[in-house]
C-alpha cells in the first residue's frame, strides 16, 4: 500500500506545475472556498507552495492542452450561466451516491480502461507509458479536454488517503491505475514519443472496443469518450474529501469553457472536432451490424438506384403498422421518443426546426423519466440511452444536420455535468439546457433572422419562395404585418407539395399569392424581385443543403439576375463540405413518385414498379452551389456564403457549450 | 366548296378547344386537310398557282388563329404554300429553258429575257445560290424585281403550255411527300442515334416525346446499353409515360421528380429532349421545365441535344415567347379545386383575387443553351437554323395576316 501511496504524493507536484503556469493564479492562493463562485483557479492554488515551475512536459499534444488551458484559466470568470452557479452551490451534495457506481464492475472497468488500461495489460514494469497515453487520450478526446485533466489532478491531492480504500475494494486493474499513473508521471518526464504513440493506439483501441461493448449503441465514438471524464473522477470516491476538489473542478470548467470562444484549440483537438464519416450503406459488414441492433424492421427497396447504394434505401410503407403494433412492447425506447420516431416515419413532422424541436422535447421527457440504474453513473448511462434513442430515430428517418448538431450539444452537456449534482439536479439542469437550446438557438434565432430579413423587403416587391420554410413563412407574415405591400410567389414541387400548406396559411392571412410548380419557375422568374429560401443546413464551403429543388430555383434566379437570400439559423451550420447532391442525401419513399394525388387519370406507372428495369428515385435534399446564393441571413447577421466557415469556426464551438 | 369548309371548321374548332394538341398530330392533320382542299379546289384555267395560294392562305389563317401556339400548323401551311410556289416555278423555268433553247437565233424578245432572269433570280432566292447563279445575277438587271411582280409577266407566256392539271397533281404529290416525311421523321432521326450514344451512357430527358423514345430505342436495338433518367414533367407527368414505354422496350430507366434535375445532372452525360417548336434563331419552345434543365446542363457542361423533325421548324423569330407563344393550362392540375375552393373567394379591397395559379405549358430555351439539333436531315448547331429556314419557306409567306 505504501508503495502506492508514496507515488501518489509525488503526482501532486506535477499537477501543480501544470497549474503553476497560470501566473495570476497565485494571487488566489487562499484556501479554496467551495461555495463561492469566485475565481475557479483556487483548485490550482494548493500547488502554489510546491516546487519550482517545472519544465513543460515533452511536446505531446496532451501536454500542449494542459498548458494552454492552464494559461487560459485566469481569464475573466463571469459565471456563464445560472446553471453553473447552481452546480457550484450544490456543494453540500454527498457523493456517496457515486460510491456504488464507481465500485460497480462495469463502471470501474470502464474507468480503468479509460485511465489505466495501458499498464493493466502490460503489467507493472512499464506502467507509465500506458497512463501517459491515456492522459493524452482523455485530453484529446475532447475539444476542451484540458480542464478535465486539471480537475482530475486537483482532486487527486485530497484523495491520496483515499486510494487505499479503492485499492482494497476495487478490481485489480484499478489500484494499478492509481499507482501506475503516479509512477508514470513521476518517472517518464521525457520519454521517447515513439513507443508512447504505439501504446496509445493500442490502449485506445481497447478502450474503444470496450466502450462499444458496454454501451451497445451505434457509432457513438464521441458518446463513449465523453463520459470518460466523469468516470475518471469517480474513480477515487471519498465522500467527505472529494466534495471540495470537485467543486474546484466545476470552477475550472467554468473558467475553461469561458475562454473557449476566443482561442483556437491546438491541432489535435481540432482534428477531433471533425465529424466522423457517415455510415456508408454499401459497406456490407457495417450494415449487417447495424441491422442486428435495429429496432425497426426495414425492408430494402426493390429496385435500388445504383448511384445511391451508399444511402439507405428502404421501403417505408411496411414499417409504420409494424412499429405501431409494437408500441407497448418496446421496452428500451421511451414512449415520447417512440412517438416522435413514428411521426418522423409517417411524415407528420417535417422541416428542420420542427423535427429538431420535437426530438429535443422527446429527449427532455425521456430525461425527466430517467433514473440511472443502481450500478451505473448517470453520465455514462444516459449518454448510452440517448445514443440508443438516436439510433432508433435514425432508423425511422435519417437525421438532419440540425438534429445532429442538437444531439452533439446534448451529449456534451451530459458529459459536462458536474459530478456534485444529484441525479435530480442533473436531470433538471439537462432539461433546462434543452429548453435553452430550443429557445435561444431555434426560436430566438428565427426571430433575429426575421428582423434582418424584413429590412430587405420593400413596397412593390415580388418575392418568390420554394417549398415551405418556417423561417421564410414568418418573414413574409411579419412583413405583411408591418404593412409592406408585396406579392408572394409560392413555388412547389412533387411529391411533398409542402407549398400548398404554406399557400393556405399565407392566403388565410391575406397575402397576395401566386402558386406554381417548379417547372414553371423560369416563366415566373421574370416578375420576381427577390428569392427567399429556407435551408436544412449550410455547409462550410457555402453550399446550401436544402429540400430538393432549391438548387434549381436558385440557379434560375441566378440566370435571371435575381437575388437569392437564404434564411438559416446558425445552429444548422455544419463544418462538413459537399460538392454534389449524390454523396450525402436522403432517399424518400419511391412509391410516392408513381402516385399523383388528385389526378386519378394519370396512372402510367401503375403496376410497373415490379419491372426490373424501372427505378423510382425520390431524393429529399440537394446541394446548391454557393455562387447562386447572394446572401445568407442568419442569427449572426447577414453574411455572404463565403463567411460561413468563419461562423462555423468562431461560433460553432460555442454552440456546443452554451 | 362547302364540304371543304365543313372539314376546315371541324379542325378549327378542335384546335380552339385544344382537343388536338402536339406538333406531330396537328402537323399531320393540317397537311391532310390542305391536301383535300387542294384536290377539291377548282382552279381557274389561268393563274392557277395564285388561286391556290389564295385559298390555302385563307384556310391557313383560320387554322393558325385557332391556336396560335401550335406553331406546327403555321409551319405546314407555309410549307404547302412554298411547295405550290416551287412547283409553279419549276414549270416556269422549264418553259423558259425551252424558250431559251428555241431562241438561239437572235430572235429574242425582251419579255422572255426578263422572265428568264426572273426565274433564275427566284431560284437563287429560294435555293442556296450557286456560284453560277451569283455571276448571272450580277449581269442581270432584273434581279431586283420582286418575283411576285414578275409572275403576271410570265403567266401569260406559260399559259401557252398545256399544263393546267399538272400543277395540281404535282402539288398534291409534294404534299404527300411532306406527310410521309412527318410520319417517318422519327425513324430518320433515330438513324443518328448510334453515332451519338455510346455504351454506358447516362441520358436525361424531360417529359414525353415520341421522337426521343424512337431515338433511344434505336440505340438500344443496336445493342448499346445505357441508362435513362426521366424527369416526370409536371403537371402533365408525361415523363412517366415515357418511362413506361422505355421499360417496355427493355431500357433501364429511372423516374425522378423535376426538382431533382439539378441534383442528378452532374452524373448525366447527355440531355436529349423533344421540343414543341424550333424558332428561326435556334431557340426552342419546349415542354415547361426545359429551360431549367438546359441551365443545369449548361452549368455542368452537359450537352443539350434536341431531336426534332423539320416540320417543327418555325420560320418566325421569337418575341417575348414565354408569354406570346405559350399556353396556360387549368389550375386544377396544380391545386385540387375541392381543397382550395374556399380560397378562390378571398379578395383584396379592389376585388382582385388573392390567389393566382400559373400553369404554363411551354418554356422558351434560348439558342445559346442548345448544343445540337438532330433533324431528319442531320445534325445542326443552333446558329445554323436560320439557314435551314430558307430551304423550306418562302419569304413571302412568313407573315400570315391574321384577320382580326
TrEMBL record, chain A:
Quaternary structure, from the entry: Component of the translation initiation factor 2B (eIF2B) complex which is a heterodecamer of two sets of five different subunits: alpha, beta, gamma, delta and epsilon. Subunits alpha, beta and delta comprise a regulatory subcomplex and subunits epsilon and gamma comprise a catalytic subcomplex. Within the complex, the hexameric regulatory complex resides at the center, with the two heterodimeric catalytic subcomplexes bound on opposite sides.
Disordered: region residues: 1-63, 171-295
PANTHER family on file: TRANSLATION INITIATION FACTOR EIF-2B (PTHR10233), TRANSLATION INITIATION FACTOR EIF-2B SUBUNIT DELTA (PTHR10233:SF14)
Amino-acid biosynthesis found in the keyword field: no
Principal subcellular localisation of the protein: cytoplasm
Protein name: Translation initiation factor eIF2B subunit delta
Family indicated by similarity: Belongs to the eIF-2B alpha/beta/delta subunits family.
A molecular-function term among this protein's GO annotations: translation initiation factor activity
Residue spans of biased composition, Low complexity class: 209-220, 232-249
Record's keyword terms, sorted: Cytoplasm, Initiation factor, Protein biosynthesis
One CC-aspect GO term: cytosol
Listed SUPFAM superfamilies: NagB/RpiA/CoA transferase-like
InterPro entries registered for this protein in UniProt: IF-2B-related, IF_2B-like_C, NagB/RpiA_transferase-like
Compartments (UniProt record): Cytoplasm, Cytosol
Biased composition (Basic and acidic residues): 1-15, 184-208, 257-288
Automatic annotation (TrEMBL), chain B:
Keywords: Cytoplasm, Initiation factor, Protein biosynthesis
Residues in coiled coil: none
Main localization, broad class: cytoplasm
Cited Pfam families: IF-2B
GO molecular function, one term: guanyl-nucleotide exchange factor activity
Recorded GO CC terms: cytosol; eukaryotic translation initiation factor 2B complex
Lineage: superkingdom: Eukaryota
Localization per Swiss-Prot or TrEMBL: Cytoplasm, Cytosol
Family of the protein in this entry: Belongs to the eIF-2B alpha/beta/delta subunits family.
Assembly notes: Component of the translation initiation factor 2B (eIF2B) complex which is a heterodecamer of two sets of five different subunits: alpha, beta, gamma, delta and epsilon. Subunits alpha, beta and delta comprise a regulatory subcomplex and subunits epsilon and gamma comprise a catalytic subcomplex. Within the complex, the hexameric regulatory complex resides at the center, with the two heterodimeric catalytic subcomplexes bound on opposite sides.
Protein's name according to its UniProt entry: Translation initiation factor eIF2B subunit beta
Taxonomic source organism: Quillaja saponaria (Soap bark tree)
Amino acid at each position: 500500500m505504501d508503495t502506492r501511496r508514496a507515488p501518489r504524493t509525488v503526482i501532486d507536484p506535477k499537477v501543480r506545475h501544470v497549474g503553476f503556469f497560470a501566473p495570476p493564479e497565485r494571487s488566489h492562493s487562499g484556501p479554496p472556498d467551495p461555495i463561492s463562485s469566485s475565481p475557479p483557479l483556487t483548485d490550482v492554488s494548493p500547488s502554489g507552495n510546491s516546487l519550482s515551475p517545472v519544465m513543460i512536459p515533452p511536446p505531446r499534444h496532451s501536454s500542449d492542452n494542459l498548458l494552454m488551458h492552464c494559461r487560459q484559466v485566469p481569464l475573466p470568470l463571469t459565471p456563464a450561466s445560472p446553471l453553473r452557479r447552481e452546480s457550484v452551490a450544490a456543494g453540500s451534495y454527498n457523493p456517496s451516491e457515486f460510491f456504488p457506481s464507481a465500485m460497480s464492475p462495469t463502471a470501474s472497468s470502464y474507468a480503468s480502461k479509460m485511465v489505466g488500461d495501458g499498464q493493466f495489460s502490460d503489467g507493472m514494469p512499464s506502467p507509465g507509458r500506458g497512463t501517459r497515453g491515456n492522459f493524452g487520450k482523455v485530453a484529446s478526446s475532447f475539444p476542451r479536454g484540458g480542464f478535465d485533466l486539471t480537475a482530475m489532478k486537483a482532486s487527486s491531492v485530497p484523495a491520496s488517503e483515499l486510494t487505499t480504500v479503492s485499492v482494497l475494494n476495487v478490481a485489480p486493474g484499478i489500484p494499478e491505475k492509481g499507482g501506475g499513473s503516479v509512477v508514470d508521471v513521476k518517472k517518464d518526464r521525457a520519454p521517447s514519443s515513439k513507443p508512447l504513440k504505439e501504446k496509445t493506439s493500442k490502449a485506445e483501441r481497447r478502450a474503444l472496443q470496450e466502450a462499444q461493448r458496454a454501451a451497445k449503441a451505434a457509432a457513438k465514438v464521441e458518446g463513449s469518450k465523453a463520459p470518460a471524464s466523469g468516470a475518471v473522477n469517480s474513480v477515487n470516491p471519498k465522500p467527505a474529501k472529494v466534495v471540495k476538489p470537485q467543486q474546484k473542478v466545476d470552477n475550472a470548467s467554468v473558467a475553461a469553457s469561458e475562454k473557449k470562444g476566443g482561442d483556437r484549440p491546438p491541432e489535435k483537438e481540432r482534428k477531433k472536432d471533425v465529424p466522423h464519416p457517415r455510415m456508408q450503406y454499401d459497406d456490407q459488414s457495417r450494415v449487417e451490424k447495424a441491422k442486428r441492433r435495429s429496432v425497426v424492421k426495414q425492408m430494402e427497396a426493390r429496385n435500388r438506384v445504383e448511384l445511391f447504394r451508399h444511402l439507405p434505401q428502404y421501403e417505408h410503407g411496411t414499417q409504420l403498422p409494424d412499429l405501431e403494433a409494437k408500441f407497448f412492447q418496446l421496452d428500451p425506447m421511451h414512449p415520447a421518443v417512440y412517438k416522435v420516431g413514428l411521426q418522423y416515419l409517417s411524415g407528420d413532422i417535417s422541416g428542420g426546426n420542427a423535427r429538431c424541436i420535437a426530438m429535443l422535447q422527446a429527449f427532455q421527457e425521456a430525461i425527466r423519466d430517467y433514473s440511472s440504474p443502481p450500478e451505473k453513473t448517470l453520465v455514462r448511462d444516459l449518454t448510452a440511452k440517448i445514443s440508443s434513442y438516436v439510433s432508433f430515430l435514425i432508423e425511422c428517418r435519417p437525421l438532419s444536420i440540425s438534429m445532429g448538431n442538437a444531439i452533439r450539444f446534448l451529449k456534451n452537456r451530459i458529459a459536462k455535468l458536474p459530478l456534485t449534482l444529484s441525479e435530480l439536479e442533473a436531470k433538471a439542469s439537462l432539461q433546462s439546457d434543452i429548453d435553452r437550446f430550443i429557445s435561444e438557438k431555434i426560436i430566438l434565432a428565427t426571430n433575429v433572422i426575421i428582423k434582418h430579413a424584413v429590412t430587405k423587403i420593400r413596397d412593390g416587391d415580388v418575392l418568390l419562395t420554394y417549398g415551405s420554410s418556417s423561417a421564410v413563412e414568418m418573414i413574409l407574415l411579419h412583413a405583411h404585418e408591418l404593412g409592406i405591400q408585396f406579392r408572394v410567389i409560392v413555388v412547389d414541387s412533387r411529391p411533398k407539395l409542402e407549398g400548398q400548406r404554406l399557400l393556405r396559411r399565407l392566403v388565410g392571412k391575406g397575402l397576395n399569392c401566386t402558386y406554381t410548380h417548379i417547372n414553371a419557375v423560369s416563366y415566373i422568374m421574370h416578375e420576381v424581385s427577390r428569392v427567399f429560401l429556407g435551408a436544412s443546413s449550410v455547409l462550410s464551403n457555402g453550399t446550401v443543403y436544402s429540400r430538393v429543388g432549391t438548387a434549381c430555383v436558385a440557379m434560375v434566379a441566378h440566370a435571371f439576375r435575381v437575388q437569392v437570400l437564404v434564411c438559416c439559423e446558425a445552429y444548422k451550420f455544419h463544418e462538413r463540405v459537399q460538392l454534389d447532391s449524390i454523396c450525402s442525401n436522403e432517399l424518400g419513399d419511391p412509391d410516392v413518385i408513381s402516385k399523383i394525388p388528385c389526378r386519378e387519370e394519370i396512372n402510367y406507372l401503375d403496376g410497373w414498379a415490379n419491372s426490373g428495369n424501372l427505378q423510382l428515385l425520390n431524393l429529399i435534399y440537394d446541394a446548391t452551389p454557393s455562387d447562386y446564393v447572394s446572401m445568407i441571413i442568419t442569427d449572426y447577421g447577414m453574411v455572404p456564403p463565403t463567411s460561413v466557415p468563419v461562423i462555423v469556426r468562431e461560433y460553432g464551438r460555442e454552440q456546443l457549450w452554451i | 366548296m362547302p364540304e371543304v369548309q365543313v372539314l376546315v371548321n371541324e379542325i378549327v374548332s378542335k384546335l380552339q378547344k385544344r382537343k388536338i394538341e402536339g406538333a406531330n398530330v396537328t402537323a399531320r392533320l393540317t397537311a391532310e386537310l390542305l391536301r383535300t382542299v387542294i384536290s377539291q379546289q377548282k382552279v381557274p384555267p389561268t393563274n392557277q398557282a395564285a388561286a391556290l395560294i389564295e385559298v390555302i392562305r385563307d384556310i391557313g389563317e383560320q387554322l393558325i388563329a385557332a391556336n396560335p401556339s401550335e406553331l406546327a400548323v403555321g409551319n405546314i401551311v407555309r410549307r404547302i404554300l412554298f411547295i405550290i410556289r416551287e412547283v409553279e416555278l419549276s414549270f416556269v423555268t422549264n418553259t423558259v429553258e425551252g424558250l431559251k433553247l428555241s431562241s438561239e437565233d437572235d430572235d429574242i424578245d425582251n419579255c422572255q429575257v426578263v422572265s428568264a432572269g426572273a426565274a433564275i433570280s427566284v431560284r437563287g432566292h429560294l435555293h442556296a445560290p450557286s456560284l453560277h447563279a451569283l455571276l448571272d445575277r450580277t449581269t442581270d438587271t432584273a434581279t431586283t424585281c420582286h418575283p411576285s411582280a414578275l409572275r403576271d409577266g410570265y403567266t401569260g407566256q406559260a399559259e401557252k403550255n398545256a399544263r393546267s392539271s399538272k400543277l395540281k397533281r404535282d402539288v398534291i404529290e409534294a404534299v404527300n411527300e411532306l406527310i410521309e416525311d412527318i410520319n417517318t421523321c422519327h425513324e430518320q432521326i433515330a438513324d443518328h442515334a448510334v453515332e451519338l450514344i455510346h455504351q454506358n451512357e447516362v441520358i436525361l430527358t424531360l417529359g414525353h416525346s415520341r421522337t426521343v423514345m424512337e431515338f433511344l430505342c434505336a440505340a438500344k436495338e443496336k445493342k448499346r446499353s445505357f441508362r435513362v433518367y426521366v424527369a416526370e414533367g409536371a403537371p402533365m407527368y408525361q415523363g412517366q409515360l415515357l418511362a413506361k414505354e422505355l421499360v417496355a422496350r427493355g431500357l433501364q430507366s429511372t423516374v425522378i421528380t423535376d426538382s431533382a434535375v439539378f441534383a442528378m445532372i452532374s452524373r448525366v452525360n447527355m440531355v436529349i429532349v423533344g421540343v414543341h417548336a424550333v424558332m428561326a434563331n435556334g431557340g426552342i419552345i419546349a415542354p415547361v421545365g426545359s429551360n431549367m434543365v438546359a441551365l443545369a446542363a449548361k452549368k455542368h457542361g452537359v450537352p443539350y441535344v434536341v431531336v426534332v423533325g423539320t416540320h417543327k421548324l418555325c420560320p418566325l423569330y421569337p418575341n417575348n415567347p414565354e408569354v406570346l407563344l405559350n399556353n396556360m393550362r387549368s389550375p386544377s392540375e396544380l391545386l385540387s379545386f375541392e381543397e382550395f375552393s374556399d380560397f378562390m373567394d378571398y379578395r383584396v379591397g379592389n376585388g382582385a383575387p388573392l390567389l393566382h395559379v400559373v400553369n404554363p405549358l411551354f418554356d422558351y430555351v434560348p439558342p445559346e443553351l442548345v448544343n445540337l439539333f438532330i433533324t431528319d436531315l442531320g445534325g445542326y448547331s443552333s446558329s445554323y437554323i436560320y439557314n435551314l429556314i430558307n430551304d423550306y419557306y418562302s419569304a413571302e409567306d412568313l407573315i400570315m395576316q391574321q384577320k382580326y
